[in-house]
UniProtKB/TrEMBL annotation:
Principal place of residence: cytoplasm
Residues where Zn(2+) binds: C17, C20, C36, C39
InterPro entries on file: AcCoA_carboxyl_beta, Acetyl_CoA_COase_Trfase_b_su, ClpP/crotonase-like_dom_sf, COA_CT_N, Znf-ACC
Cellular component per GO, a single term: acetyl-CoA carboxylase complex
NCBIfam families recorded: accD
Cofactor(s) it depends on: Zn(2+)
Protein's name in the database: Acetyl-coenzyme A carboxylase carboxyl transferase subunit beta
Domain CoA carboxyltransferase N-terminal residue range list: 13-270
Pathway: Lipid metabolism; malonyl-CoA biosynthesis; malonyl-CoA from acetyl-CoA: step 1/1
GO annotation, biological process: fatty acid biosynthetic process; malonyl-CoA biosynthetic process
Reactions catalysed according to its record: N(6)-carboxybiotinyl-L-lysyl-[protein] + acetyl-CoA = N(6)-biotinyl-L-lysyl-[protein] + malonyl-CoA
Segments forming C4-type zinc fingers: 17-39
The family this protein is said to belong to: Belongs to the AccD/PCCB family.
Gene: accD
Length: 270
C-alpha cells in the first residue's frame, strides 16, 4: 500500500517579523493593519493601504495624477532613468512616489498626501514636489487641515539633480504661506523618513507624529558612522530617541493614528 503524502503548509501563510524574528500568521498581521502581534513591529504598507487605513471609506479624491516625471538630464546608472520610471510604475501601480488628494477623517475634510518607499525609495523628484506644493496651495485656498504621511527613504531623487533639490525649497515655501494663513499641518513620519524629505516638509508640521521604531533622520546611521568613525547612541534616529530629544511630538501606533489626527483637528479648531 502506498503511503499517503504529507500535506505541507501552504506558502504565504506565515511571515517572518523583522522586529522580533518570529514567524507570525500573515492574516493576523493584516488584520492588525500590518503590525506584528508579538512585538508591535510596524510592517511596510503601501500608499493605497495608508489611504484605506486613515481616510473614511470611499471619500478619497485624488489630485494631479496627470503629472508625470520626465528625464530632463537623460540620467543613466545601471539603467536609464526613463526606463526605471516605467518599470516602477508597472511594479507598484503608482504614477510616482506620492499620492495626493482630499478625503474625510472621521467626517472631517482634509487635504491628504502619502509618500511610498516602494517607488524609488519614496524619493522626491519634480513631480513629488509639484504635487505636494499644489496640495498645500489647495489646502490654503480651501482652509483645510493638511495631513502628510511620509515614508521616504531616498530623500531628493538624484536622477533629477538640482531639479529635485529645488523641490525642498518649493514645498517649504508653500508650507510657510499655509502657516501664515493659519492652516493646521499634521506631519506623520513612518519607517523610513530620511534625507531631503526629513530635512524639509516632513519636519515642519505644527504637530509631528511618528510610528513606533521608525527610522527618521537625514543621513542613515551607517553613513554617519562611516563618516565620523564613532559609535552612535543606542536607538539613534528612532522615533523613541527623537521623542526623547524633542524632535517629534508624539509616537502614535498605527491603530490609533486616525483617531489621533481627528482629535488634533478638533483640538485646534480646524
Amino acid at each position: 500500500m502506498s503511503q499517503s503524502k504529507k500535506r505541507g503548509v501552504p506558502e504565504g501563510l506565515w511571515v517572518k517579523c523583522p522586529g522580533c524574528s518570529a514567524s507570525v500568521y500573515k492574516k493576523e498581521v493584516e488584520q492588525r493593519l500590518n503590525v506584528c502581534p508579538k512585538c508591535e513591529y510596524h510592517f511596510y504598507v503601501s500608499a493605497h493601504e495608508r489611504i484605506a487605513q486613515v481616510l473614511d471609506d470611499g471619500t478619497f479624491e485624488p489630485m494631479n495624477e496627470h503629472l508625470r516625471s520626465t528625464d530632463p538630464l537623460e540620467f543613466a546608472d545601471r539603467r536609464k532613468y526613463s526606463e526605471r520610471l516605467v518599470g516602477e510604475q508597472k511594479r507598484t501601480g503608482l504614477t510616482d512616489a506620492v499620492v495626493t488628494g482630499t478625503g474625510m477623517i472621521r467626517a472631517r475634510r482634509v487635504a491628504f498626501a502619502v509618500t511610498d518607499s516602494a517607488f524609488i525609495m519614496g524619493s522626491m523628484g519634480s513631480v513629488v514636489g509639484e504635487r505636494l506644493t499644489r496640495l498645500v496651495e489647495f489646502a490654503t485656498e480651501q482652509e483645510l487641515p493638511l495631513i502628510i504621511i511620509s515614508a521616504s527613504g531616498g530623500g531628493a531623487r538624484m536622477h533629477e539633480g538640482i531639479l529635485s533639490l529645488m523641490q525642498m525649497a518649493k514645498v517649504t515655501a508653500a508650507l510657510a504661506r499655509y502657516d501664515e494663513a493659519c492652516g493646521l499641518f499634521v506631519s506623520v513620519l513612518t519607517n523610513p523618513t530620511m534625507g531631503g524629505v526629513a530635512a524639509s516638509f516632513a519636519s515642519l508640521g505644527d504637530l509631528v507624529f511618528a510610528e513606533p521604531k521608525a527610522l527618521i533622520g537625514f543621513a542613515g546611521p551607517r553613513t554617519i558612522k562611516a563618516t565620523i568613525g564613532i559609535e552612535l547612541p543606542e536607538g539613534f534616529q528612532t522615533s523613541e530617541f527623537l521623542l526623547e530629544h524633542g524632535y517629534i511630538d508624539r509616537i502614535v501606533p498605527r491603530k490609533s493614528l486616525k483617531t489621533e489626527i481627528a482629535r488634533a483637528i478638533d483640538y485646534c479648531g480646524k
